[in-house]
Amino acid sequence: MSPDPYDPERVATLSDPASFRYCSGEELRSFLDPGPGWHVADFGSGTGLFTDELAPAAGTVYAVDVRRGLHAAYRERGMAANVVPVLADFGRLPFPDDHLDGGISVRTYHHGFDDVLEEIARVVRPGGRLVVVDWSATGAGDREGRDSHRYRDVAAVAGELLEAGFRIDDARERRETFVVVARR
Ligand SMILES: C[S@@+](CC[C@H](N)C(=O)[O-])C[C@H]1O[C@@H](n2cnc3c(N)ncnc32)[C@H](O)[C@@H]1O
Q: Does residue 3 belong to any structural domain of this protein?
């Protein structure tokens, strides 16, 4: 676990609403479709840009991130009362089995989320939903490029989710990103 503060420039980028050009809050809420009492998690929440988009639609939103500095930046920006920051590696989650009704992974699949799908399946209840949105390996290229060698395409991601015990409700390539909506 890294206790270090995050690069301030990176904090500003992660908090920039320009990211909604690629995935909007309305899209995320529609994909996850949370009930008002749902417990959901944002896996790799960063400074909470997308966590904030779920908070008004769910009961509790766990903002899971391994970097303390990003939670601090999120607190400074202002965290809704039903957001619970969780300082943890998403490969070792402090939740009991089947605790979550759903979760999202936005721009984190290429940060090792693909390696922890069994742990995600452990904490999402049967019938619960997982929404994965990330830059696509087949994207047009008008996007962040730092980690482009780690980007995946939708078929690979859907296959890995199936192997981890999820069913696929929806899977599509878009111009720059893929979206997979999976169900445990
Ligand atoms: C590109 S940022 C995306 C942040 C946010 N989801 C967004 O789209 O604004 C990737 C995030 O994943 C977090 N992360 C990377 N590896 C992680 C891990 N193993 N466990 C928890 N968080 C992790 C990073 O700290 C960072 O906040």
A: no
